[in-house]
């Protein structure tokens, strides 16, 4: 008999200790404990929470922002590595699944960075490392493209879990790729972006994207968004006099939990810091699919054909001699 999990989920809305990797990892471990102590079996953290978003790309010229790019490279982490291992130990210690965004540095390139989401099991195992497929707009000055090798849904104690970072949640094909693998729990990680165009409502954009994925796929989405701390504003203002004004717009951070009908569960957080909690019953994903199951009976796979290349991409392929060959 089919028995789907019921659990409590948590979404963190907070700012990292800007470009201070060690201090931010310590903060992450404290927030993991707080979420677990409040009964959560899953906690989601914002995009690139370890340890900061490149706001200089939006408020400075590329030349002005270049010294900040160097600082970000030096604060970035490798996966696996000691920083993520420390977070994984906290996940295991508190028996909680964790999804966290990090600036990942390539092990073979000191200035090649990825916007990465790391999924950790409640036993402290690294289940997945998803690199953002396409950095959004000004982010292309900082991050390289990821590949689809990590576009996978993970089998966890709380159910089939998939993740996407920020603007990827606008990518219909990426979302469908996760749904087609049986995703029932989705984590969408964001950053607060007050420097968006003046007629762009960041809070509504985040909520709408999550609602669309939930309603189309009949899944739950946990949305975690960062905030902009006075520390970040001060740092950017020291390099650019208009940064304070550009980063001051409110209604730019939304964290919350959305059900398979596209409606927000409980009370989301807008702009302010905290942790959002909600009880999730994956059995609620069943009945709505009788009407629309876009990865099953409500589709025409004889007409539509989506192909996803999940082979890892690399800068070079080496063809080494077979063992025993003469030099």
Explain what you see.
Helix 1 (21-37) runs parallel beside helix 4. Strand 8, helix 6 (202-217) and strand 9 form a beta-alpha-beta unit. The model has no long low-confidence stretch (mean pLDDT 96). By secondary structure, the chain is α/β, with parallel strands linked by helices. The protein contains eight helices and twelve strands. The strands form two sheets. The protein has a six-stranded mixed beta sheet. The chain has a six-stranded mixed beta sheet with strand order 6-7-8-9-10-11, with helices on one face.
So, the CATH homologous superfamily? Carbon-nitrogen hydrolase
How much of the polypeptide forms β-strand, as a percent range? 15-25%
Order of helices and strands: EHEHHHEEEEEHEHEHHEEE
* Total number of strands: 12
- Name the overall outline: globular
The main β sheet shows up as: 6 strands, mixed
Number of helices: 8
CATH architecture: 4-Layer Sandwich
Helix content: 25-40%
Distance between termini?
61 Å
Low-pLDDT residue intervals, each spanning 5 or more residues: none
User: Based on helices, strands and strand pairing, what is the structural class?
Assistant: alpha/beta
Regarding CATH, which class?
Answer: Alpha Beta
Please indicate the count of domains. 1
Radius of gyration: 20 Å
Largest sheet, order of strands side by side? 5-4-3-2-1-12
